[in-house]
Amino acid sequence: MNTIFRKSVLGVAGLAFAGGLAAGPLNHHDTTPTTTALTPVVAVQADKPAVDTAKLIPHGVQGAQSTITLNDEQVGNAKAIIAATKKAGMPERAAVISIGTSLQESKLENLGHLGDRNDHDSLGLFQQRPSSGWGTPEQITDPEYSTTAFLKGLKQVDGWQDMPLTQAAQTVQVSAYPDAYAQWEQQAADLVAQHWNS
């Protein structure tokens, strides 16, 4: 995608383009994700229909997949992303892309300023930057707001529904590590399958 088109897409989304919208992935965790072959989770509740897993990963995952064990706060943030996606009237695939992006950017943790470990002003679940027009620090650290801001950018990407997760996420985030999002697609899809109808 050329720079002029990217600026246009992000300008329409109401986001200022200032040398990248979010910091690349930060290595701020002591835990290293494990790479494994994952078996998809299909959540079925007696009174609610199962999520169509074919819609979650329409073209299969790309490359080796990573997974991390999530604590209650991280699961709560995944649920908040799903709720904001539903509120925005977007499908399950948008939630998969959003959660996969957040897994890469923050491991689903709502991060405040990281001090010396972060040379930018990246905050929240998606490592969005106030200086790049994503919102105020208070807004960016609100899971509903930050997810809605990410989804506004995603909506402006022509064909996002048919893109691999890493391409869709990179088009919005403009990360220094564009292929890193791919490793989280299966875990993101599993979380959406488990919590979309809960």
From TrEMBL:
<keyword id="KW-0732">Signal</keyword>
<feature type="signal peptide">
    <location>
        <begin position="1"/>
        <end position="18"/>
    </location>
</feature>
<protein>
    <recommendedName>
        <fullName>Peptidoglycan-binding protein</fullName>
    </recommendedName>
</protein>
